[in-house]
Design brief:
The strands form 6 sheets. Strands 5-14-6-7-10 form a 5-stranded parallel sheet, with helices on one face. A 4-stranded mixed sheet has the order 3-2-1-15, with no helix packed on it. The chain is α/β, with parallel strands linked by helices. The chain contains 12 helices and 18 strands. The radius of gyration is 24 Å and the shape is globular.
Amino acid sequence: FDMARNIRFSTRITSAAYDEASGGWTVETEDSETFAARWLIMATGPLSSTHIPPFPGREDFTGEVYHTGVWPHHPVDFTGKRVAMIGTGSSGVQATPVIARDAAQLTVLQRTPGHSWPARNRAMLPGEQEAVKARYPELREYWQTLPGATFFRTLLTDDPIVPGTGSAFDVSDEERLAIFERAWDYGGYAVLRAFSDLVTTEAGSLLVNAFIHEKISTIVSDQETAEMLKPRQLFGTKRLILDSDYYETFNQPHVDLVDVRSDPIERLTQAGIKTRDRQIDADMVIFATGFDAMTGSLSRIDFTGKDGIRLADVWQGGPQSYLGMLVSGFPNLFIIGGPQSCSALANVILANEQQVDWFCQCIRDMLDRDNRTIEPAPEAQTNWVEHIAELADASLYTKADSWYLGSNIEGKPRNFLLYLGGYPAYRARCEKVAEEGYEGFVLEPA
């Protein structure tokens, strides 16, 4: 598509300043190059700024160091090496079985065990891909109606894997267990749609906890390790992890699990990692410690808006936006997958596409109507921020610390960072706002 001529690679943006005279933006790079733009669209991603906790002694370790979020393009050889991995979120859980295949010793340092479910990745069945492609328009319309913009049916027959509606307490214990088993065997996120109250009520959440606990006890031979792997927080308060043979990996004699809540990391040493009670010698340390989610990449750029206001100051107590797409005081600054949108709680491809389409239509409308700038009205922004908080407070998400709340970053304000009303409701709200002449926005004429 001849796009490369419009792309500047290996270029880091350091600042972006709004120019009130032109109604546009001046963007500066780390090499002091500047670019002028009427519209500035941030596609920096909600999970793209990696985070490593400030462990003392990081510079002392003489072995190899990696972070799962910035994995090198060249192959990394684990063969015969002693590997220590810190973190058991999605990346750590998914990396564990792969590293264990070749490493001489793998030590996994876990702070909080998560809820992990089999991914069940597999080769496609004969005719499966062709059948899906033949129905793309129909399937895409169907996905638009689902809370996460993704579906849980067999692709060839449309048979539902799980009921998807009704309370977990409307069926017998035997029927509920059978449904959970079907979701476990199918894999992926099917369990999230098994019943309507698994992630909205504490009682429903505890049913899934009990099921996963039993699975772990059955799969993991050493029951002391099994107990360490069992999640204690409510199901639905953190992101569900999908894995391939994660729990099975701890049955291998060269794989060890360390609970850093009871035996905390004190520092990195020349030879590896020192916890309170032990020295873990390692040839390689892998940080699977996640991201400064939703706001991290944006906070690393110095944005200056109208009247010299800085985005860092506006967001000091937590992000503020309207629809998760624009911020009052920063005209013509669009954010894809930003905080207070539904980005990381939906099929990210469709969620991004919806926002990009909205931005494109907005810019077309501005050009057609001879508008110079667009930004949220302060009242509309305040109402949206309050709406985000109300949805979060009515859910289980606030019942545990997670990156959804920024709790994994020391000093980050604790605010729920995503829209919880579901993708269809979010899409409908955005469309309604545009149809009503960009309700809640201030459009300045040229």
